[in-house]
Structures are given as C-alpha cells and as structure tokens.
Design a protein that fits this description.
The protein is an all-alpha fold. The chain has one domain. 59% of the residues lie in helices and 0% in strands. The chain is built from 4 helices and no strands. Helix 1 runs antiparallel to helix 4 and helix 3 runs antiparallel to helix 4. The longest helix is centred in the C-terminal third of the chain and has 35 residues. It starts with 23 loop residues before the first helix and ends in a 5-residue tail after the last helix. The N terminus is likely disordered.
C-alpha cells in the first residue's frame, strides 16, 4: 500500500504537488457533476440527444475497457497514481491509436452526457477535464514512462498521438 503523498516532491515525474493526486475517474465525475449543475434548471432532453448520449457512452466505455483489458493481459498496473510501477509498455490494440484510451473513453462519456443534457453549456466542463488530466496526470505519467522505458517510449510517443 502506498502513502498518498509519499515521494511527492522527490520523484522526477512528480514536479508539482498536484501531480498524480486525484484519480482520473474522480476528475471525470467532477466534470459530470458540473455538467449537471450547469443544466439542472433547463435541460433539453431529446430522443436524438439520448441516442447520441448512448452511442458516445458505449464507444467511450468500449475504448476505456479495451485499454484496461490490454493492461491486464500484459500483467501491468493501471494504477493512475503509480505509473512508475508499470512493468510493460503496452503499444498494441487501442494503444496503437491513442496513448490514453481510458481518458479518451471518459471524455467520450462526458460528451455523451453533454448530448443527453442537450445544452451547449454542458460542454464547458470538458476542456477543464482535458486540461487537468493533461497537466496533472498525463505529463507525470509520460515522465515516469520515459524514465522507465527510455528510447522505446520515445519511439512510441512519436508514432502514437497522446489523445487521438
């Protein structure tokens, strides 16, 4: 078991005290709550919006689940707070299209929720979700993977985009 703040400023991949602190599903949940808050008084639920929401959520869940399954198949960790414990660089399957399929899946889920709410204002939390993950989750993960896998990770990063 890891202490939540162990090595916060001593590890090279944790350049900021907020790095790798809030689990990405919690960040996505906060964005979803913000979407609800912004639309709670005037949602515009429509059949088209519900269909779009279901489709985006299904695609997002599939992409995210495939990412998790590839990690499981490789026998490596998917723990978002400890990328240094990664034992295998997974580059096949959905990881050949995006370096962050689980985060892409959550973003698609948020887009689905925005479609469900039927109001453009519901899109506003999504850039905040993406910016937070980019700064405090993905960049520290990338530093840890670069330190662990060196040239192999550098080549993978050149070949596969961070998002899509």
């Amino acid at each position: 078991m890891h202490a939540p703040y162990a090595g916060a400023m001593t590890s090279p991949y944790r350049a900021n005290p907020l790095d790798l602190r809030i689990p990405p599903p919690v960040v996505a949940g906060a964005a979803a709550a913000a979407q609800w808050f912004l639309t709670r008084n005037n949602p515009r639920h429509t059949p088209v919006g519900r269909a779009a929401a279901a489709g985006l959520a299904a695609v997002g869940a599939t992409i995210g689940a495939r990412g998790l399954l590839h990690f499981d198949d490789a026998g490596t960790t998917f723990h978002p707070h400890h990328p240094e414990e990664t034992t295998t660089l997974v580059t096949h399957g959905v990881y050949s299209r995006t370096r962050n399929p689980m985060y892409v899946g959550m973003a698609l889920g948020l887009l689905g929720l925005a479609a469900h709410h039927g109001r453009a204002v519901a899109l506003l939390p999504i850039p905040a979700y993406l910016a937070y993950l980019q700064r405090f989750q993905i960049r520290p993960e990338e530093r840890a993977l670069a330190a662990r896998f060196g040239a192999e990770y550098a080549e993978y990063s050149r070949r596969v985009r961070r998002w899509v």
